[in-house]
Every structure is written in C-alpha cells, then in structure tokens.
Amino acid sequence: MTTASTPPVLPGSTHVGTVQLNARDLPGLTRFYADLLGLNVTWPNPTQAVLSAHGTPLLHLHAAPDLPAPAPTRPGLYHTAFLLPTRADLGRWLAHAARLGHRIGSGDHLVSEAFYLSDPEGNGIEVYADRPRDTWTWKDGQVQMATNAVDAQGVLQAAGIDPATLDGAAPFSAPAGTTIGHIHLKVGSAAQAARWYRDTLGLDVVADMGSAAFLSWGGYHHHIGLNEWHSAGQPTPAAPAAGLRDFTLLALDLEPLRAHLDGRPDVQSGPDSLSVTDPWGNRLSVQQG
Questions:
Q1: DSSP of 95-114, one letter per residue?
Q2: Which listed residue, of 30, 33, 121, 210, carries a Cα 20 to 30 Å from 174's Cα?
Q3: Boundaries of each VOC domain copy (predicted)?
Q4: Cβ distance 207 to 225 under 8 Å?
Q5: For the segment 41-70, what is each residue's pLDDT rounded down to a tens digit?
Q6: In angstroms, rounded to a whole number, what is the distance separating the alpha carbons of residues 203 and 7?
C-alpha cells in the first residue's frame, strides 16, 4: 500500500461532520448519548433525534425497531470518536463516566489519549483529546501511533479532580468545540479499503498497520480508520441492520472532488453534496460547509 500524498481533491480542512445511526430503541439510545456526553437533543419528528454540542450536530439517530442487531463480523461502524478540546475536558468527562458506572477501556496513542466503551446497541464509542500537533512524530509520511496505558490519574488531575475520590467532579456538559474527530470502520480488507478511500476522496494514508489503516486530510493523525480485525473477508452486507446508517464529511470546496469523480456511476451528486458507498456498504456524503 503506497503512503505517498495524494492529489488534493478536498481541502486539508475537510473533517467528519455527523454520524447517523439506525437505532432499535430510539428513546433509550438518545438518552444514553445525551447523558454520556452532555449533548443537547432536538426531535425533527418522532422517529428521529439529533444530538448536538453548542449547536454543532454530531449524531443523528433514526428509529429502526424492526432491524436486527448487526453481527460482530458485519462491516460497518467500529466506533464514533468524539474529540474534546482539552485534556482537562477529557478529565471532566472521565470522572462523569466513572460516576455513571460505565466500564471503560483506554489507549494512549502518542498523538492522543482515548477512552472506549459501547452504547447499549453495541456501537463503539471513543472519547479522546489530542496532544499538541507539534509533539506528534512523523517518519516517511507516517504518523507514529501506539496503544499504551493511559495515565488516567494525570487526565483527572488535569481537570482538578482527585483520582482517589473523584472530588472536584461536576455534572458534565459537552464543551464548545466538541466534534467528531474521526470515524473508524470495519471492512473486509484494510488494504483494499485504504486504496478506495485514498483514490475516491484524496485522503493520505498516514498509518499502515497491515490489518488496519488510518487516513486523513491536512496532516491530521486520522479522520477515517479502517480495520479488518473482526470482518476480514466479509462482503457487502445483503440486508440492512441497526448501527451505522451513514456519515457526513464537511468540505469548504466540493468542485475539485466533483471533477475527480465525474462519470463514476456509484456517485450521487447534488448542488451542495456528493454521496457514495464504499465496497462494504458504508455510505458517506461529502457536504459543502
């Protein structure tokens, strides 16, 4: 898999906008995300809920009570990654999640500190904060990442919270600047998926780990993660299921991408958006905004 920079068919500021999920229990899943992340909820209609942070929509949930739960091997969502502005914000969230009684995993990825859990319907969640970009290490176009133990005590102390007692913790509300930093997908082949996303959207492959690949615009550590850890060799699912419905990418200028994809029969084009589905049925739209 080549890791050379690709032609810039999207601006370097392109990033993930919203993630849309099919929810078997819409009210329950809505309450879960609102409580976990301190998000505001609006209801466009009784079958949809939008969860936002300070007016920025992050999750769009759709009622799908008749859909089956996705099998663990099904291509689709591995996790939605919520990026908090600072390490102190991450500490405040960690204390909040601990007080809610959630079982949480973690990983120090050198470029970021992250915590992991799943929602009640099995959709993966990451909550993380980046380290300053000038501390990231790059070599031959690859960003150096790892999965080490997180200094959870240090994360809590950054928020002024006592790790032993959680004294100093307060009710958590998503701070201004909370975004979806990246989306991580399950695919049948990480190498094939990396080529597809690189060739379709002009992403750079910034970390190639064989069974997983990480891609980004503008020198970020990754906007899209791809792995085959549970889904190696799986084809496009034959029928819909709960879980990932689609996701949105936001770009300042769509015209270079529109020209790049001109003539492809798998692309749906609108005045301010382009939609396409990857080889494993993961649908995405690129919107101008």
A1: HHHHHHT---EEEE-SSEEE
A2: 121
A3: 15-130, 179-289
A4: no
A5: 999 999 999 999 999 999 999 999 999 999
A6: 9
